[in-house]
TrEMBL record:
Pfam families: DUF6178
Protein name: Uncharacterized protein
Xref: InterPro entries: DUF6178
Length: 582
């Protein structure tokens, strides 16, 4: 029997769009030669404008657009932007449109009619049927709130004595009973068409909505509208804030015993196809992007559906504005980072074990494991800053050398942040995303904690003496937060070489002498002398840590002092590593 040729893989979005530019007929033939699922997955592999162009290229563009999960559709529209999303609004299903408006038409729990106003003219441009379907699928409370924002309504019921309306009534009316004064002339034409269509095609809804806009309290209308909205969003997997915060809760008892759980595929319903945009928010070498790239078919769809839920939890819990893609991406990346971190914690960094963990344990449970690891760092850093030796220092954690000061500052936030000097754009902090982040933060906390042992126990400095470095009207450095561990140690060593007792700022008259003495000591075995004294510590790990800490500061001092000429002019403001009476 002859070997059958396997079907050709679907072309990528960029290749197909390039072909459409060069040879439209050939591109159309290739595009429609694919199955609908292949075309859907090709659309999902694209972003924003490319997605829209691929959808419009299809003969069954309406069916293809409506196959997108509501969250993927909303993301596409927001990427394209309100100015250019008219085609998508025309093609989408009522469910997709409702999801978009439910997501972006509110700010937290507050209805924002001006946001609805962005999309509604596109609905009108899509034709009367599209507008009528939107009206039929929109809650009466939302329509009443919108009308209250757009128009001032006056109801006039003529009596037998007064058959003509008074002169002070607004001019616009459809039925001679309700009169409308438009608050914003820019939307007058659009709102008038909405009212006319509502009255002609849905008269009962017209009267109910106007009566509600006239008499119901705004708070009550908003409460009911938000209740219906929350229910619809929940049906599509978008959590309440309380539910979303469960990602940051303590892990449930036994939740980490993933070996005892059955495979998730056996207990989870089939998920719709989705894109890799969420897993791509993390560096490609991380566990989640790697797993999303490996899994195909139903298993891949299940993982991506879970990722979508986790990302939504991040948006809800961190109160990101769904109408702003940048905010959404930051919040989603943070919650996905917790999952990736939890996966690293439970797998111990083993990729094979990570695959097994994900096949059995929910991503929400993994996020809780990651949150627990970050919370432990926060607890330890907070104890060190508020109860440990740093709490007795005049400037607290500012006394630490960079980057320890940056690490501790990030870890004591209410939402602990990972210090990352490579971020650029004047940013230093990001969310924790992997085990290496936690291990580096753990090392920073240990080093910061040990400096207290080194200063107060091994070198026998007194807190009162360290405080004395900060006392005086004319000191250099002028800003107390610029006095670091290197200043404490450098000043102590300089005073020791000068034969001065205690710890206090170097007298200005002896600055040149102090620099000379310290330069000489650093060149002739001061580092070895201190290292030798530390080797006598009974704990080898402690001795090693002390050696690294001292060596780093001494090397910093050596570099700073090496550029100084004791015979030349010396300005205390430009001498790092010493506290001087200016």
């Amino acid at each position: 029997m002859a070997n059958q040729t396997p079907p050709s893989p679907a072309p990528g979005p960029a290749a197909l769009l390039k072909l459409a530019q060069d040879d439209p007929r050939r591109a159309e033939a290739v595009w429609h030669g694919l199955s609908r699922e292949q075309r859907l997955r090709t659309v999902l592999a694209a972003k924003g404008v490319e997605r829209e162009r691929l959808i419009v290229l299809a003969a069954d563009s309406r069916e293809l657009a409506q196959q997108l999960p509501p969250d993927e559709f909303a993301t596409t529209v927001l990427e394209v932007g309100p100015e250019d999303a008219g085609a998508l609004i025309e093609l989408c299903s009522d469910e997709q449109l409702t999801y978009l408006l439910d997501l972006t038409g509110w700010w937290k729990e507050n209805f924002a009619p001006e946001r609805y106003q962005i999309w509604l003219p596109m609905i009108l441009d899509a034709g009367a049927k599209r507008l009528q379907r939107w009206l039929a699928n929109t809650d009466m409370e939302v329509l009443a709130l919108l009308l209250r924002h757009w128009v001032r309504i006056v109801k006039f019921l003529p009596s037998q004595e007064q058959q003509e309306p008074p002169d002070d009534l607004p001019e616009f009316t459809i039925d001679g009973v309700y009169f409308f004064e438009f608050v914003d002339p820019k939307v007058q034409g659009f709102v008038a068409q909405v009212l006319v269509l509502l009255k002609s095609e849905m008269p009962e809804a017209y009267y109910r909505t106007l009566e509600a806009a006239l008499w119901e309290q705004t708070a009550e209308l908003q409460e009911y509208a938000n209740r219906w909205r929350s229910g619809r969003l929940a049906d599509h997997g978008f959590p309440t804030r309380l539910e979303a915060l469960e990602l940051w809760a303590a892990p449930a008892p036994g939740e980490s015993a993933w070996q005892d759980l059955p495979p998730k595929a056996s207990v989870t319903e089939r998920a719709a196809p989705r894109s890799d945009r969420l897993s791509a928010m993390l560096p490609e070498q991380e566990f989640l992007p790697a797993l999303a790239g490996e899994l195909t078919g139903e298993a891949g769809d299940l993982l991506r559906a879970e990722l979508a839920y986790i990302a939504s939890c991040g948006v809800a819990a961190l109160e990101a504005d769904p109408a702003h893609p940048e905010e959404v991406e930051r919040a989603a990346r943070e919650s996905l980072g917790l999952v990736n971190l939890g996966l690293g914690v439970l797998s111990g960094g083993d990729p094979v074990k990570a695959r097994e963990v994900v096949s059995r344990l929910s991503l929400a449970a993994l996020a809780r494991q990651g949150a627990a690891a970050v919370r432990d760092l926060n607890r330890r850093a907070w104890a060190l800053a508020k109860e440990g030796w740093l709490s007795r220092m005049p400037t607290g954690l500012h006394i630490l050398e960079p980057p320890l000061d940056r690490w501790l500052a990030g870890l004591v936030y209410a939402r602990p942040r990972c210090y990352d000097p490579n971020l650029g754009q004047n940013r230093e902090y990001r969310a924790f995303i992997n085990l290496a982040d936690v291990e580096t933060a753990d090392s920073a906390i240990k080093q910061a904690a040990f400096w207290g042992t080194l200063l107060l126990e091994l070198l026998a400095l007194k807190v009162e003496d360290i405080r004395g470095l900060y006392q005086g009207e004319h000191l250099s450095p002028e800003d107390p937060t610029d006095i670091k561990l290197s200043h404490v140690l450098g000043t102590w060593l300089a005073r020791r070489e000068l034969g001065l007792e205690g710890l206090a700022p170097i007298p200005a008259a002896r600055l040149r002498e102090a620099v000379t003495a310290l330069q000489k000591a650093l060149k002739h075995g001061l580092e070895d002398e201190l290292a030798e004294s530390l080797r006598a510590l009974p704990d080898p790990a402690q001795a090693s840590l002390a050696g690294r800490a001292l060596r780093g500061v001494l090397q910093h001092l050596s570099l700073e002092l090496a550029r100084l000429d004791p015979e030349g002019e010396m300005d205390p403001r430009f001498i790092a590593g010493l506290v001087v009476e200016a």
